[in-house]
Amino acid sequence: MQVNEYKPLIVAFCCNWCSYAGADLAGNNRLNYPADVKIIRVPCSCRVNPMFILRAFQRGADGVILCGCHPGDCHYTSGNYYTRRRMALLFSMLDYLGIEKERTRVEWVSAAEGAKFAATMNDFVETVAALGENKRLEDLRCKK
Amino acid sequence: MKRIGVFVCHCGTNIAGTVDVKAVAEAMKHEPGVVFSTDYQYMCSQAGQEMIKAAVKEHRLDGIVVCSCSPRMHEATFRKTAAAAGLNSYMVEIANIREQCSWVHKEMPIGTEKAIILAKAAVAKVSLNAPLTPGESPVTKRALVIGGGIAGIQTALDIADAGFPVDIVETKPTIGGKMAQLDKTFPTLDCAACILTPKMVDVAQNEKIRIFSYSEVTDVKGFVGNFDVTIKRKARYVNETLCTGCGACTEKCPMKKVPNEFNLGMDNRHAVYIPFAQAVPKVATIDPNHCLMLKSGKCGLCSKVCGAGAIDYKAKDEFLEERYGAIVVATGFNPISMEKFDEFAYAQSKDVITSLELERLMNAAGPTGGTLLRPSDHQHPHTIVFVQCVGSRCEACAEKGKEYCSKICCMYTAKHAMLIRDKYPDTDVYVFYIDVRTPGKNFDEFYRRAVEEYGVHYIKGMVGKVTPENGVLKVQGSDLIDNRQLHIDADLVVLAAAIEPDKSARPLATMLTASMDTNDFFTEAHPKLRPVESPTAGVFLSGTCQGPKDIPETVSQAGAAASKVIGLLCKDKLLGNPCVAHSDEMMCNGCSTCEKVCPYGAITYEDKEFRMPDRTTKVRRVAKVNEAVCQGCGACTVACMSGAMDLKGFMNKQIMAEVDAICK
Predict the structure, then answer these.
(1) What per-residue confidence (pLDDT) applies to A2?
(2) What mean pLDDT do residues B390-405 have?
(3) Domain count, chain A
């Protein structure tokens, strides 16, 4: 029997206007990336509450990535600037708690960048997989 | 507990090829809340939608999950289906198992496993959905067209024809754009001015159209149906209503050595000028950078000769505030700068020119009166070399060129070569090309005529270097078919420069919150199905601001954009986006944090009376969201410290439920 290879669990928050469309474009162009990535659609990257990210780690996610429009291109003008600041703060706090900085990422992917989306996901999954499983924040009560 | 139905689409083999759809439908039957689960070949088809409607009735469903393509594709379709079945249309969630699953993963077990997880997340979300009703907003029945080239002109004429008022904003002193500079147009060789200037006159005479030339858009607020736009009318120092366009001022102006932009700097104009004879509006403009009176206060000649008394040296920039229901972007293109292409010696030699410069040299109203003469010595050129794809399809030279094909160059070069051979049969014409691309009606026939009837020498290969030497341009190129090096002594070298979006496009896109691609072309809402709409509601695209295109394509796109605008302006009321922020008054402490982060100013505060448990009342300041103004970004929901602010359709608990479902 083949030994199960370790598969990281990645939660990706994508803004509806740029990155979610970029992910769709990656699909249209059949650009492969690992199935470990599960996308949650949000209207704007600034809709992502730090609580969502903490919850993901509590529930056993190994990495969380936020994708938004490029700075200056936000559909809502300034949403991604809030994301950038909030996440800089949150990620350094998570790092302090022992969730390595490599496990969290903010990336700008436009609706035209299907290739960038796939490349980013490939790279992120590889990085997180190299770190191994994340148990730092895991809430054992959530385990069934 | 909700009664949820799950509908898994095969999408032919698009999904079913990589995802075991039956297994997905089966797995979903065991999810809490799911009372019905099935699969079907094409959910979006009539039969698929009927199936959903029947299931809603039969199983008394109050929530629907469709596992299919991207919600960007068919969310609206299934919302309508739900509404037709008597459900609130916002009780639908889509699990994207095509673009984000079956198309990007190859193996069936992996695809199926992920599809099940995505479906579970959608079920978790829909079980917390609440019915939403979109608000209504009125529509201002007037359109704004930004850019007065052929794209803007055609769009404005078509909208005005339908009876709606239109304003055109053009940065230059006249409308007409690039087409006004062209000599002949392919593939019929009719003269550009002969077909464009009557349209310009139509615009000027149309009661429904106002032209704001020498103006620019400086601010855009609001949203579809009601955009509040600030237009800056640059001071032209000539009263537009008084000026008759007689041209007396331009003749008398002593400042004669100003490079003429219209002829691309190949001749001079006066400091007070009318760009060309058929300009619309035919009104003079004073160039403040060169006018002696404006610079030093000494001259005033134009004012003395002006019979109409239209000259006004004290004019100031004016700002207009206007409201529009729809905005059409038609900002057009420019050839890229050739300065960086040292190998072609554009900066060193006057006889290396761009194709647009050649248009002016061949134009009867151009600097040479239509006779083809070398710019350096005004002699007739006997050997002309055309270089194709200068800066186009240039992956290796991204810092100076563009990766994309500029699309129009193959055809206009064939046109130039043909016209030159026709008028000057003693001239040798060489065209160096990578490929000749002629996919258009009568295009290939046209190119073949250039080769077969007019004897233009087409050489597959690139020019490596152009060296100016003793009045001759030494062209060194390669012929890939015969596999040899070529050395040609040319009198004139014409570069088919790549085209790029106008520089004004990017700041405009920011103002409109319209998205652009990496090349600064505006992105369409859907590349195939919504090609003239921007993803931003109420913003439409016309012409080359969206991508390189020729005149026939531009005109058809302009008409398409106009029909979309007319469709919008015909409506009396627009349904808004119901996914807007909502503040829980009981939790709000009136701290004003949300107000500061809101990019739309949609949040205000009001004092509200609350009844306390001891039956006294207390007045507290609480946030209030203006639902017509809120665009639903959610910035406030994260900023809110007390957790009072939430976003309908993307509630905290809904997204949390999705996270939980994925991380199970």
Answers:
(1) 47
(2) 87
(3) 1
Q: Is B522 on the interface with A (CB under 8 A)?
A: no
Residue A5 lies in a domain: no
**Which of A23, A40, A47 is closest, CB to CB, to B634?**
A47
State the nearest Cα–Cα gap between A27 and chain B, in angstroms.
4
The C-alpha atoms of residue A100 and residue B19 are separated, in whole angstroms, by: 34
Residues above pLDDT 90, as percent of chain B: 89
Mean pLDDT value of segment B596-625: 91
The residue count of chain B comes to 664
Q: B108 at the A interface (CB within 8 A)? A: no
A137 at the B interface (CB within 8 A)? Answer: no
Q: Is the pLDDT of residue B395 over 90?
A: no
**Chain B neighbors of A61, CB-CB under 8 A:** 659, 662-663
- The average pLDDT across B516-544 equals 89
Residues of B in contact with A31 (CB under 8 A): 104
Specify the CATH number for the domain of residue A114: 3.40.50
pLDDT exceeds cutoff 70 at B557: yes
Tokens 């056993």 sit on residue:
A60
Q: How far is Cα B514 from Cα B524, in angstroms, rounded to an integer? A: 9
Specify the 3-state DSSP secondary structure of B597: helix
Q: Using a CB–CB cutoff of 8 Å, tell me whether B537 touches chain A.
A: no
A31–B104 CB contact, under 8 Å: yes
- Residue A108 to residues A69, A112, A114, B399, B611, Cα–Cα distance (Å): 5, 11, 12, 21, 47
Query: Domains of chain B, with CATH numbers?
Result: 4-126 (3.40.50), 143-234+317-332+502-569 (3.50.50.60), 248-305 (no CATH), 334-500 (3.50.50.60), 581-648 (3.30.70.3270)
pLDDT in tens, B250-266: 999 999 999 999 999 99
Of A38, A42, A72, nearest to B117 by CB-CB distance is: A38
Q: Which of B96, B517, B631 sits opposite A110 (nearest CB)?
A: B517
Distance of CA B390 to the CA centre of its chain: 24
In sequence order, the 6+-apart residues with CB closer than 8 A to the CB of A96 are none
- B634 touches A: beta carbon within 8 Å: yes
Whole-angstrom Cα distance, residue B514 to residue B328?
11
pLDDT at B98: 96
Would you state the pLDDT for residue B226?
Answer: 92
Helical (H) or strand (E) element with B323: strand B318-324
In 3D space, the residue among B603, B596, B599 whose CA is nearest the CA of residue B581 turns out to be B603
HSE-up of residue B485 (Cα within 13 Å, Cβ side) = 6
Give me the pLDDT at residue B221, please. Answer: 85
Cα A124 to Cα A10, A28, A106, distances in angstroms: 9, 21, 11
Q: Which of B103, B579, B597 sits opposite A27 (nearest CB)?
A: B103
Question: Which whole number is the average pLDDT over B92-99?
Answer: 96
Own/partner pairs, B519-527, CB within 8 angstroms, 24+ separation? B519/B402, B519/B403, B519/B404, B521/B545, B521/B546, B521/B547, B522/B329, B522/B546, B523/A111, B523/A112, B526/B72
Among A23, A43, A111, the residue with its CB nearest the CB of B515 is A111
Q: How far is A43 from chain B (nearest CA, A)?
A: 6
Residue A132 lies in a domain: yes
pLDDT at A3: 47
% pLDDT > 70, chain B: 100
Q: Residue A34 belongs to what domain range?
A: 10-142
**What is the block-wise mean pLDDT of chain A (144 residues), using blocks of 10 residues?**
72 94 92 96 96 94 95 85 95 94 95 91 96 85 64
**Interface predicted TM-score (ipTM) of this complex, two decimals:** 0.95
CB contact under 8 A, A118 and B518: no
Q: Mutate which of A46, A69, A78, A109 to disrupt the B interface (most B C-beta within 10 Å)?
A: A46
Chain A: nearest CA to B336, how far in angstroms?
A: 22
